[in-house]
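Hi L.,

As promised, Trimethylamine corrinoid protein:
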Amino acid sequence: MSEIFENLKQAILDGDEDLVVEYCQQVIDDNIDPVAAIEKGLIKGIEELGAKWKAGEAFLPDVMMAADALKAGLDMLEPVIAESGATGGDAKGKVIVGQVAGDIHDIGKNIVGAMMTAAGYKVYDIGIDQPAENFLAKAEEVGATIIAAGALLTTTMAAQKNIIEYLKSKNVREKYKVMIGGGPTSQAFADEIGADAWAETADEAVVLCDKLIAG
Protein backbone atom coordinates (compact mmCIF):
# COMPACT_ATOMS: atom_id res chain seq x y z
CA MET A 1 0.00 0.00 0.00
CA SER A 2 2.68 2.49 1.02
CA GLU A 3 4.60 1.60 -2.15
CA ILE A 4 1.91 3.07 -4.41
CA PHE A 5 1.87 6.28 -2.34
CA GLU A 6 5.67 6.52 -2.63
CA ASN A 7 5.43 5.91 -6.38
CA LEU A 8 2.85 8.67 -6.73
CA LYS A 9 4.99 11.07 -4.71
CA GLN A 10 8.06 10.33 -6.85
CA ALA A 11 6.10 10.67 -10.09
CA ILE A 12 4.97 14.14 -8.97
CA LEU A 13 8.55 15.07 -8.04
CA ASP A 14 9.66 13.90 -11.49
CA GLY A 15 6.80 15.77 -13.16
CA ASP A 16 5.85 12.54 -14.94
CA GLU A 17 2.19 12.97 -15.85
CA ASP A 18 1.93 9.59 -17.63
CA LEU A 19 3.20 7.73 -14.57
CA VAL A 20 0.87 9.66 -12.27
CA VAL A 21 -2.08 8.63 -14.47
CA GLU A 22 -0.86 5.01 -14.47
CA TYR A 23 -0.52 4.89 -10.68
CA CYS A 24 -3.87 6.62 -10.13
CA GLN A 25 -5.49 4.01 -12.36
CA GLN A 26 -3.88 1.36 -10.14
CA VAL A 27 -5.36 3.10 -7.06
CA ILE A 28 -8.80 2.94 -8.69
CA ASP A 29 -8.44 -0.66 -9.96
CA ASP A 30 -7.19 -1.99 -6.62
CA ASN A 31 -9.77 -0.08 -4.56
CA ILE A 32 -7.04 1.77 -2.64
CA ASP A 33 -8.29 4.71 -0.56
CA PRO A 34 -8.22 7.68 -2.99
CA VAL A 35 -8.07 10.19 -0.12
CA ALA A 36 -4.90 8.54 1.19
CA ALA A 37 -3.47 8.47 -2.34
CA ILE A 38 -4.00 12.21 -2.63
CA GLU A 39 -2.71 13.06 0.85
CA LYS A 40 0.19 10.59 1.11
CA GLY A 41 1.15 10.54 -2.57
CA LEU A 42 0.20 13.53 -4.70
CA ILE A 43 0.23 16.20 -1.98
CA LYS A 44 3.41 14.88 -0.36
CA GLY A 45 5.12 15.09 -3.74
CA ILE A 46 4.03 18.64 -4.49
CA GLU A 47 4.89 19.76 -0.94
CA GLU A 48 8.37 18.27 -1.21
CA LEU A 49 8.86 19.94 -4.58
CA GLY A 50 7.65 23.23 -3.10
CA ALA A 51 10.32 22.96 -0.41
CA LYS A 52 12.97 22.30 -3.06
CA TRP A 53 11.69 25.26 -5.07
CA LYS A 54 12.03 27.54 -2.05
CA ALA A 55 15.53 26.20 -1.38
CA GLY A 56 16.57 26.85 -4.97
CA GLU A 57 16.93 23.11 -5.72
CA ALA A 58 14.04 23.00 -8.19
CA PHE A 59 13.18 25.35 -11.03
CA LEU A 60 10.03 26.77 -12.59
CA PRO A 61 9.78 24.13 -15.37
CA ASP A 62 9.97 21.41 -12.67
CA VAL A 63 7.14 23.07 -10.75
CA MET A 64 5.00 23.52 -13.87
CA MET A 65 5.42 19.88 -14.90
CA ALA A 66 4.63 18.70 -11.38
CA ALA A 67 1.54 20.92 -11.31
CA ASP A 68 0.28 19.39 -14.56
CA ALA A 69 0.95 15.90 -13.20
CA LEU A 70 -0.87 16.80 -9.97
CA LYS A 71 -3.89 18.07 -11.89
CA ALA A 72 -4.02 14.89 -13.98
CA GLY A 73 -4.00 12.79 -10.80
CA LEU A 74 -6.66 14.89 -9.08
CA ASP A 75 -8.88 14.76 -12.18
CA MET A 76 -8.86 10.98 -11.86
CA LEU A 77 -9.19 10.55 -8.09
CA GLU A 78 -11.56 13.36 -7.09
CA PRO A 79 -14.57 11.84 -8.94
CA VAL A 80 -13.88 8.54 -7.14
CA ILE A 81 -13.97 10.34 -3.78
CA ALA A 82 -17.19 12.07 -4.80
CA GLU A 83 -18.81 8.74 -5.75
CA SER A 84 -17.79 7.19 -2.44
CA GLY A 85 -19.93 9.63 -0.46
CA ALA A 86 -18.32 13.05 -0.26
CA THR A 87 -21.20 14.61 -2.19
CA GLY A 88 -24.64 15.98 -1.58
CA GLY A 89 -25.92 15.51 1.94
CA ASP A 90 -22.85 13.59 3.04
CA ALA A 91 -20.41 16.37 2.22
CA LYS A 92 -19.31 18.65 5.07
CA GLY A 93 -20.14 21.63 2.91
CA LYS A 94 -19.80 23.09 -0.57
CA VAL A 95 -16.85 25.30 -1.45
CA ILE A 96 -16.16 27.43 -4.51
CA VAL A 97 -12.44 27.59 -5.26
CA GLY A 98 -10.86 29.86 -7.86
CA GLN A 99 -8.13 32.33 -8.77
CA VAL A 100 -9.26 35.95 -8.98
CA ALA A 101 -9.47 38.07 -12.13
CA GLY A 102 -6.06 38.61 -13.72
CA ASP A 103 -4.42 35.71 -11.89
CA ILE A 104 -3.43 32.64 -13.91
CA HIS A 105 -1.48 30.71 -11.24
CA ASP A 106 -3.30 27.52 -10.33
CA ILE A 107 -0.86 25.31 -8.40
CA GLY A 108 -1.87 26.57 -4.96
CA LYS A 109 -5.54 26.54 -5.90
CA ASN A 110 -5.29 22.93 -7.07
CA ILE A 111 -3.62 21.85 -3.84
CA VAL A 112 -6.24 23.64 -1.70
CA GLY A 113 -9.03 22.05 -3.74
CA ALA A 114 -7.45 18.61 -3.37
CA MET A 115 -7.03 18.95 0.39
CA MET A 116 -10.60 20.18 0.83
CA THR A 117 -11.94 17.32 -1.29
CA ALA A 118 -9.90 14.84 0.74
CA ALA A 119 -11.31 16.39 3.93
CA GLY A 120 -14.87 15.67 2.80
CA TYR A 121 -15.96 18.91 1.15
CA LYS A 122 -17.68 19.12 -2.22
CA VAL A 123 -15.35 21.43 -4.12
CA TYR A 124 -16.28 23.37 -7.24
CA ASP A 125 -13.11 24.65 -8.93
CA ILE A 126 -14.02 27.47 -11.30
CA GLY A 127 -10.44 27.87 -12.53
CA ILE A 128 -8.12 30.83 -13.04
CA ASP A 129 -8.70 34.49 -13.93
CA GLN A 130 -12.27 34.58 -12.61
CA PRO A 131 -14.20 37.83 -12.03
CA ALA A 132 -16.27 38.32 -8.89
CA GLU A 133 -19.56 37.61 -10.65
CA ASN A 134 -18.39 34.10 -11.62
CA PHE A 135 -17.64 33.21 -8.00
CA LEU A 136 -21.13 34.29 -6.97
CA ALA A 137 -22.85 32.70 -9.97
CA LYS A 138 -21.33 29.30 -9.19
CA ALA A 139 -22.03 29.63 -5.47
CA GLU A 140 -25.69 30.43 -6.21
CA GLU A 141 -25.94 27.59 -8.74
CA VAL A 142 -24.67 24.83 -6.44
CA GLY A 143 -25.73 26.22 -3.05
CA ALA A 144 -22.21 26.69 -1.69
CA THR A 145 -21.56 28.45 1.60
CA ILE A 146 -17.83 29.16 1.28
CA ILE A 147 -15.98 31.08 -1.43
CA ALA A 148 -12.21 30.56 -1.46
CA ALA A 149 -10.37 33.06 -3.66
CA GLY A 150 -6.65 32.92 -4.33
CA ALA A 151 -4.27 35.63 -5.56
CA LEU A 152 -0.58 35.03 -6.20
CA LEU A 153 0.33 38.52 -7.37
CA THR A 154 0.29 41.84 -5.51
CA THR A 155 -1.42 43.25 -8.61
CA THR A 156 -4.36 40.84 -8.33
CA MET A 157 -4.95 41.10 -4.57
CA ALA A 158 -7.41 43.93 -5.14
CA ALA A 159 -9.65 41.47 -6.98
CA GLN A 160 -10.17 39.62 -3.68
CA LYS A 161 -11.60 42.81 -2.22
CA ASN A 162 -13.74 43.17 -5.36
CA ILE A 163 -15.44 39.83 -4.61
CA ILE A 164 -16.48 41.02 -1.15
CA GLU A 165 -17.67 44.37 -2.51
CA TYR A 166 -19.59 42.57 -5.26
CA LEU A 167 -21.35 40.32 -2.73
CA LYS A 168 -22.31 43.43 -0.75
CA SER A 169 -23.63 45.14 -3.88
CA LYS A 170 -25.90 42.14 -4.52
CA ASN A 171 -27.04 42.09 -0.85
CA VAL A 172 -25.75 38.52 -0.35
CA ARG A 173 -22.63 39.15 1.73
CA GLU A 174 -24.22 37.47 4.78
CA LYS A 175 -24.92 34.30 2.79
CA TYR A 176 -21.29 33.44 2.12
CA LYS A 177 -18.07 33.02 4.06
CA VAL A 178 -15.14 34.37 2.03
CA MET A 179 -11.69 32.87 2.51
CA ILE A 180 -8.63 34.32 0.81
CA GLY A 181 -5.09 33.07 0.32
CA GLY A 182 -1.99 33.34 -1.85
CA GLY A 183 1.62 34.46 -1.55
CA PRO A 184 1.24 38.23 -1.08
CA THR A 185 -1.86 38.05 1.12
CA SER A 186 -1.92 38.22 4.91
CA GLN A 187 -4.23 38.24 7.91
CA ALA A 188 -3.89 42.01 8.00
CA PHE A 189 -5.04 42.26 4.37
CA ALA A 190 -7.94 39.89 5.06
CA ASP A 191 -9.00 42.08 7.98
CA GLU A 192 -8.66 45.20 5.85
CA ILE A 193 -10.95 43.95 3.07
CA GLY A 194 -13.42 42.25 5.41
CA ALA A 195 -12.72 38.61 4.49
CA ASP A 196 -13.94 35.94 6.91
CA ALA A 197 -10.69 33.98 6.92
CA TRP A 198 -7.14 33.90 5.58
CA ALA A 199 -5.10 30.74 5.08
CA GLU A 200 -1.37 30.59 4.47
CA THR A 201 -1.30 26.89 3.58
CA ALA A 202 -3.69 24.29 2.20
CA ASP A 203 -3.76 22.52 5.57
CA GLU A 204 -4.84 25.76 7.25
CA ALA A 205 -7.51 26.28 4.60
CA VAL A 206 -9.13 22.98 5.58
CA VAL A 207 -9.00 23.79 9.31
CA LEU A 208 -10.53 27.23 8.64
CA CYS A 209 -13.24 25.68 6.47
CA ASP A 210 -14.18 23.42 9.37
CA LYS A 211 -14.40 26.46 11.65
CA LEU A 212 -16.45 28.49 9.19
CA ILE A 213 -18.89 25.61 8.67
CA ALA A 214 -19.16 25.09 12.42
CA GLY A 215 -20.27 28.66 12.76
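The first helix runs from residue 2 to 13.

Thanks again for sending the construct details.

K.
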